[in-house]
Amino acid sequence: MKILIATDAWHPQVNGVVRTLTSLAKTVRKFGAEVEFLTPEGFLSFPLPTYSELRCAMPLGGEIARRIEQARPDAIHIATEGPIGFAVRRFCVKRRLPFTTSYTTRFPEYISARSPIPESWTYAALRRFHAAASVTMISTVSMMNDLASHGFKKLGMWTRGVDTELFNPDYGLELDLPRPIFVCAGRVAIEKNIEAFLDLSLPGTKVVIGRGPALAELRERYPDVKFLGLLEGKELAAHLAAADVFVFPSKTDTFGVVQLEALACGTPVAAFPVTGPKDVIGDAPVGVLSEDLRGACISALQVSRDECRKFALARSWDVSASQFIGNLKSIKLPSPTRVAPARPIEIAAQ
After folding, report:
1. Helices (H) and strands (E) in the chain — how many of each?
2. 2-161+318-329 and 169-313: same fold?
């Protein structure tokens, strides 16, 4: 099976969507599948306001059609609801081709945190976008229930995994910082609720890993916090393994892959009891979920690091890839022509 995945989020961006898609592409090969990506690469793009390190692509309809026709996929999946996602959706709807989507970012909550736009308006737009899909893949049960309550239909499960070879306690380094060390890693932006962590009165040291539009301001406001910037690969794993507690203050993530990455490093998690942490951690003895985030951080110091590692070992990318392919198998595109050429299309939301 050849799968074409359309995504607006792609390298050099560093986020959960990019990491998930990259890991998926490697893992599906075990199941006899192959992934090709349709990304912003090659299209005219411009930087996003307040997100200068991110760029928004301006895909031409004719080029979108050409790339899909050239790929000759057996299945099409739209991973994001950006310009690339809308253009590919337009193509599929126009040709009456089945496709799947995934809901990976809580845009209604993100947008309302930055603007006066009501969440209900954004949910309505997203509901319309995903309604044309054969299946909309969701990473957690609580997120699936939440979307169902907002009127989303045809939902399927696609959980996340972790690379337990890369994220490993053996990579831990010695940080010359007062203990205990509380680490938060992710995009440094208002919607990630990082200030809820930075405002806590905690012993030892607070460390923030990541970059984003709020980084400069938070560095100035919290001079006692160690801001390490962007870390990736073994360097990220080494710092997660060196921490005593991983703090996940976000209330808007649909999953939070970095929680599994921390657990694979043997580091317990402290978080709010919301979608994402509730699904990753739940009642497992690998972290503490509480509306009292400071209390959760202190209590997490007593959690067994061996239990954290054991928990992560059971959350493989193989399971995730198997679910993804299962959602596609019943909606393969017609063969042998699959996608037939046609005249160029314009970009517009259906």
Report:
1. 14, 14
2. yes
What is residue 137's three-state secondary structure? strand
CA atoms lying within 13 Å on the CB side of residue 316: 10
324 in helix, strand or coil?
A: helix
How far apart are the C-alpha atoms of 268 and 303, rounded to whole Å? 6
Q: What pairing do the DSSP bridges indicate for beta strands 245-248 and 269-271?
A: parallel
Count of Cβ atoms closer than 10 Å to residue 228 Cβ: 17
- Alpha-carbon span 162 to 158, nearest angstrom: 14
Contact call for residues 222 and 245 (beta carbons, < 8 A): no
Beta pairing partners, 181: 205
The residues spanned by each domain of the chain are 2-161+318-329, 169-313
pTM of the full predicted structure?
Answer: 0.81
How confident is the prediction along the chain (350 residues), in pLDDT tens digits per residue?
999 999 999 988 878 899 899 999 999 999 999 999 999 998 887 766 555 455 677 887 799 999 999 999 999 999 999 999 999 999 999 999 999 999 988 888 878 777 889 999 999 999 999 999 999 999 998 999 999 999 999 999 999 999 999 999 998 899 999 999 999 999 999 889 999 999 999 999 999 999 999 999 999 999 999 999 999 999 999 999 999 999 999 998 989 999 999 999 999 999 999 999 999 999 999 999 999 999 999 999 999 999 999 999 999 899 899 999 999 987 867 654 355 554 443 433 33
Architecture of the domain defined by 169-313? 3-Layer(aba) Sandwich (3.40)
Q: Any idea which fold 2-161+318-329 has?
A: Rossmann fold (3.40.50)
